[in-house]
Structure formats: structure tokens, C-alpha cells
């Protein structure tokens, strides 16, 4: 049986990476009703900004966070805020944005409400991923008490509450909602953006040791050849 590996492309500069990412995403989203799950963080922001200027049928495209900190949109940690500020403008001003947070006090209380909204999202699904220095993607943190159950669940829920331990990477944002492995299974294509030697070296070790139990390994094993990795060192 042929092993399906993700495709990896390495660029000299962030600007080159951003340009290729915009081109790939534009081709994914062109000419159809679809959903793009979007990760937050500093790496994809410039990509979203440039993508907002592309002439696509935005009124038939839906975007939604791949994970969310359980905070108001005015909070600096809100992925909804980041996505709206970087993408929902210019030609993409008419895109359909679906939040990953409800008005409930906790992600556990709001999980069903968010799930119902995500289940209504049009297929096909696509996703933009980033990776933390600890190997997490979305809000798949190995320190979370829900993590092992999340990685082994076999239902068809698209979202799940998760509560990682506080550390230098999570900051104080320990109440979150995240996509599930099933959501990744449902994605037709995925783009993972990596910047910096530390993250690149970690990624290479994960590709060379597919049995590692880091969250990014789970994502790679799920997506296989549907995943394109764009990196700078």
C-alpha cells in the first residue's frame, strides 16, 4: 500500500510564503459554495489580509474559526476578532462569518449551540492551520484533560470544548472551543503554515517519526496527502 505523505514547500521569505498561500487558498475557494476553517495567530494574518482583496464569490463562501478562546470578540485573544480585522473587508466584506463562541458562560455550556451552527456549514470544507512551538494545532493541547478522549472519539461532532493547562503558550486562555479530528477528516484540502527554524525542526521530526503523539502528528496522520505544508526557516 502506498503511504500518502503531505506536501512540503520551503520558502526563503515570509512574503513568498504568503503569496503562495493566497494563491492556493484562492484556487480552493474559487467557483463554489464552501467553508474555510481559519486559525488565528500572527502567521496567517498577512495571508488573510491579502486574500481579502481577491475577487471571489465571497457571498457564497463561509468562514469559521478552527478554534476559539472563550472570550468576547473585543478581547485581544479572540480569533473572531483577528479574522474579522484581517479578512472580512475589501472584496471579502460580504463573506459569511460563523463564530465559534456563543453567549453561554462556558464552552461546555455553549458546545451544542456552536455545534448546531457548524453542522449547517456548506461542504466542501477547507482549513488553514498553524502550529505552536509545543506541536499543538487549533486548540489541540496535549496538556488538556479532554485531549486523549478528543483524539480517540469516533462520533461526528465538529467541535468540542477543551481546557488546556495554563503555560507560556496558552497564556490565561484556558477555556476554549476547537475543531475535532472528525472535522479534519471532512476537509478536502488543508494548508499548514510554519515560520521559524524551531517550528520547522519540530515539524521535520514529526514527519520522520509519524508515531509521535504530538497534536500535529494526529493532524498529519488524518490529512495525509490532503495537507500542504508551507514553511520558512
TrEMBL record:
Pfam families per the UniProt record, alphabetical: Glucosamine_iso
Domain Glucosamine/galactosamine-6-phosphate isomerase: 31-219
Origin organism lineage: Bacteria, Pseudomonadati, Pseudomonadota, Alphaproteobacteria, PS1 clade
Record-given protein name: Glucosamine/galactosamine-6-phosphate isomerase domain-containing protein
Signal peptide positions on this chain: none
Gene3D superfamilies: 3.40.50.1360
One annotated GO biological process: carbohydrate metabolic process
